Automatic annotation (TrEMBL):
CC terms in the record's Gene Ontology section: cytosol
List of residues binding Mg(2+): E290, E302
EC number: 6.3.1.21
Name by which UniProt lists this protein: Formate-dependent phosphoribosylglycinamide formyltransferase
Pathway membership: Purine metabolism; IMP biosynthesis via de novo pathway; N(2)-formyl-N(1)-(5-phospho-D-ribosyl)glycinamide from N(1)-(5-phospho-D-ribosyl)glycinamide (formate route): step 1/1
Family: Belongs to the PurK/PurT family.
Native organism: Methanimicrococcus blatticola
Residue numbers binding ATP: R119, K160, S165, S166, G167, K168, G169, Q170, E218, E219, F220, I221, E226
SUPFAM superfamilies: Glutathione synthetase ATP-binding domain-like, PreATP-grasp domain, Rudiment single hybrid motif
One of the record's GO molecular function terms: phosphoribosylglycinamide formyltransferase 2 activity
Amino acid sequence: MVTIGTPLSENATKVLLCGSGELGKEVAIELQRLGVEVVALDRYENAPAMQVAHRSYVLQMTDGAALREIIEKEMPDFIVPEIEAIATDTLAEIEKTGIRGKKIKVVPSAKAVQLTMNREGIRRLAAEKLKLKTSAYYFAESEEEVQNAAKKLGFPCLIKPIMSSSGKGQSVIRSASQIKDAFDKSQREARGSSSGDGSGDGSGNSNGNSKPMKVIVEEFIEFDYEITLLTVQSVSGTIFCEPIGHVQINGDYRESWQPQKMDPVALKRARNIAGKITKALGGYGIFGVELFVKGKTVYFNEVSPRPHDTGMVTMISQDLSEFALHTRAFLELPIPAETVKGKKGKKSGFKVVKLNGPAASKAIFRTGTSNKISYSGLEKALEEKETQIRLFGKPEIKGERRLGVALAKGKSVKEARKNARKVDKAVCINLNGVDYD
């Protein structure tokens, strides 16, 4: 039987949230609804989740010693990572040994958090151990090795640092003449080092080490579309959300919609892939499984062991958003789901979260510099029926930043996307007296 204590008391059920962005904010809100004490961490003050937490701390979460100090002080029941750049070796050690006799759970598991921050670890698990279909690939540690890999794969091909996020360090190589620039970019924009703790000087080298950062060189797949398949591992079993289609620019999510129309065979294959990879990673929680689809063929791409930015559409498309699902899962609470039918009306065995109808999200991005951001035009933005807005409350902007998300329903995905764009366009953002709309 699950027992939840009282916040700010000796018997509190406590969660330490590692990362306090907009996704973490929604997780914190769901935890607050269930009476869980929330402690939020991030590298800067007044991050979104800190605004709805009981307490917060500012630190570099790649600093294992600093992270351990806070964990030992707070003694949480659960550690919930929201981002990848965390001292994962520290989390793994704490999950294994506990602190002062107390067992502390990393969500969904330390194994999942460690493997997914490193493209080599997750690709070897998926392709070599689980035999899931992926693009052809090679790992390389020098420009010469990238050249050899590109010759084998042919052009165009892709190069990515094994540790990066949001498209950083990635390039499409269309000819041999582009290899040097692409490799240099991968080293310059890589996150941390391959040591597993996410530390480094931001150049792709750890502690000034001159050894190049390992990269993955991949076959370029001309896919029809890509999806995020939110997959929940829970006491209720493996549960899927309906597939989410999305648009990314330079690796950043811009739009998403649900459901993405799929061939039934491709959908079944997608669910099989997502079920296998999330089960192998272990633990309870939600996973954002990224897949490429070409006809009836489905390729595994990546997986995040946490809510996914493209999944923000679930805040309007489902009764239980991805954040509510994540929270219920790691607290070991039940998740209602329907068993979908397969061919000839027979049950397929796949459990699926009920969808309330076509829906879409549109990220509200703006460009500028300010620490006094204000918003207007909300009356017009919310005139449309079945629309919502989330403003993240980020304290500042330097360059381009995602400041909110527009959510909308519609009779069709096309209509929902149109409505979400209308909401986004209506929001005016004032940066020190200058309107960006």
